[in-house]
Amino acid sequence: MSEKPDKDSQTEDASEKKISDAVEKGNVPFSRETALFASLLGILAVLTFFVINPVRVLTTELTHFLDDPAGFKLENAEDAVALAWGVLIMLGQLLLPAVLVLGAAGLAASLFQNTPRLVLDRIQPKFSRVSPVAGWGRIFGTQGHIEFGKSTFKFLAISIIVGFLLYSEQGRVMNAMYSEPLLLPSVMLSLATRLVSAVCVSTIVLVALDLVWARLKWRTDLKMSKQEVKDEHKQAEGDPLVKARMRSLAQQRARQRMISAVPKATLVIANPTHYAIALYYDRQKGGAPLVVAKGADLIALKIREIAERCSIPVIEDKPLARAMYDAIEVDQWIPADFYKPVAKILYFIYSRGSNAPAK
What we know:
359 residues; mainly alpha; name from scop; 4-stranded mixed beta sheet; 14 helices
């Protein structure tokens, strides 16, 4: 069975985590038309600023070579190498600016769309990239239809532009055929510049639409199903069942530690079965009594049971027990508000000189 997610079930917008993971893996929105438009602008810049002078120099040198081939020294291999180097240098002066500008245009197009990052996974070979089935799906799927529409639009636009341009310049082209050969490169350069400019203008709308479409499609492809949202929430926040189990275990361990501390208590204040607070007081050190255990209902009964088994005085004071239960936590010293009533109880216990439970 296919492991691809069901598109119909992917109704939820992608979470920030999924978007971040996709970006880290190199899955980012990218418009090919934007990169192509940047290349066209680069070609236009090259034709406008960097081609005129090198073309003139190259044309002049070729004219000299065609008019007077014997004027070039070719007596041995060294002369041939020197001539070849001269031609290569002229070609380099012509082509190097074009290469640099086109490379900068492609880099600018990528930087405009996304922050560059190195993702080795994107260059690893994958069978899906050469799979005939996957390729067939890309060709005849939604994306294939869109690419076909864009290609058709570009073909028609460029064809119309070239037709109008050649029709409007046919007189100039015909005159160039009967003019000096040195004027022909300038005519061709002018026509090429106008053609590239017209193509750039005609494809601006297509580039803008493709840029928006690339991002919308990327967001659509990243959509999640409700189950995926739940699973991600569980991973981020933790499984509620596991968290509840861990919280239950923590509470159970805390109760066990608290119950084990009851035998060292000095007295227990109860109400009479609903609440119980066990206090420890060191008469030699003084200070405030320490709460070593507290509980309600069954835990309160357990505290009273241990206290009676260990001959720890149990004092029943309903208002005091309820107030202390709500205001004090285990392993805390009692607040000053309870000093006076607790001091009376301690005085009562020590004055009796007995550890028997008291009512």
